[in-house]
């Protein structure tokens, strides 16, 4: 399942993802790391 991820500094929506990602915010330049450890029920 995709989860919305937002910048931890300015709260800009950075995207929707499932898994692990490192995204640099285009607005404020903060590097954000996301770890989605939720497992989907199949």
Structure in words:
By secondary structure, this protein is mostly beta strands. It has one domain. 0% of the residues lie in helices and 45% in strands. It contains no helices and four strands. The radius of gyration is 11 Å and the shape is elongated. The model has no long low-confidence stretch (mean pLDDT 90).
Element pattern in H and E: EEEE
Helix content, binned percent: under 10%
Residue share in β-strands: over 45%
The backbone outline, from C-alpha atoms, is: elongated
Please state the structural category.
mainly beta
| Count of separate structural domains | 1
What would the average pLDDT be, to the nearest integer? Answer: 90
Largest sheet: 2 strands, antiparallel
Instruction: Give the distance, in angstroms, between the N- and C-terminal Cα atoms.
Output: 11 Å
Number of β-strand runs: 4
Low-confidence stretches: none
| Computed CA radius of gyration, to the nearest angstrom | 11 Å
Strand numbers in spatial order across the main sheet: 1-2
Q: How many helices in DSSP terms?
A: 0
């Amino acid at each position: 399942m995709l989860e919305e991820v937002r910048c931890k500094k300015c709260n800009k929506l950075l995207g929707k993802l499932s898994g692990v990602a490192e995204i640099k915010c285009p607005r404020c330049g903060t590097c954000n790391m996301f770890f989605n450890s939720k497992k989907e029920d199949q």
